[in-house]
């Protein structure tokens, strides 16, 4: 339980990354490549930021186990969706508008971000295990 609570620190670091990514998308990417391409690239970039933040911070904050990583990933995913719903509603978007973000055919890769958020702890766990195995074998 303590690991799950400590992992919230890592998830909180996603918020400024997402806000900065959104600003970069609106003020830079959309200007040069149009909204659809900017949305897709922004989704990929945010997913990479989530993986990088997780790789850098998560092992420093919690002791990783496979089960723990799945629990943390589930919590992060729920928090991410809840945060997005609250943020979108406060911006005046309808529930229907929010659902559009989950359709990758629109160019929005928000679903990739949500899935990356879920699997990021498990990804970090697997990378750490591979590094440990390579270190032991050398």
Verbal overview:
This protein is an all-alpha fold. It has one domain. Helices cover 86% and strands 0% of the residues. It has 4 helices and no strands. The longest helix has 60 residues. The N and C termini lie far apart (35 Å).
Structural class by sheet pairing and helices: mainly alpha
State the distance separating the first and last CA atoms: 35 Å
Oligomer: single chain
- Rg over CA atoms, rounded to whole Å, is 16 Å
Determine the mean pLDDT.
92
SSE layout:
Blueprint: H1 2-61, H2 66-90, H3 95-100, H4 110-137
Helix pairs in contact: 1-2, 1-4, 2-4
List keywords for this structure.
mainly alpha, 138 residues, 4 helices, globular
Question: Could you write a compact summary of the structure shown?
Answer:
The protein is an all-alpha fold and 138 residues long. Helix content is 86%, strand content 0%. The protein is globular.
């Amino acid at each position: 339980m303590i690991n799950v609570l400590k992992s919230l620190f890592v998830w909180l670091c996603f918020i400024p990354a997402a806000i900065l990514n959104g600003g970069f998308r609106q003020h830079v990417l959309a200007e040069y490549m149009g909204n659809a391409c900017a949305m897709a690239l922004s989704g990929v970039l945010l997913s990479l930021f989530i993986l990088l933040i997780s790789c850098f911070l998560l092992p420093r904050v919690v002791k990783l186990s496979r089960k723990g990583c799945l629990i943390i990933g589930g919590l992060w995913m729920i928090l991410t969706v809840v945060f997005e719903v609250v943020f979108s509603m406060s911006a005046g978007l309808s529930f229907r508008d929010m659902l559009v973000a989950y359709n990758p055919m629109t160019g929005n890769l928000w679903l990739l971000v949500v899935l990356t958020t879920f699997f990021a702890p498990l990804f970090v766990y697997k990378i750490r295990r591979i590094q440990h195995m390579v270190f032991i074998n050398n």
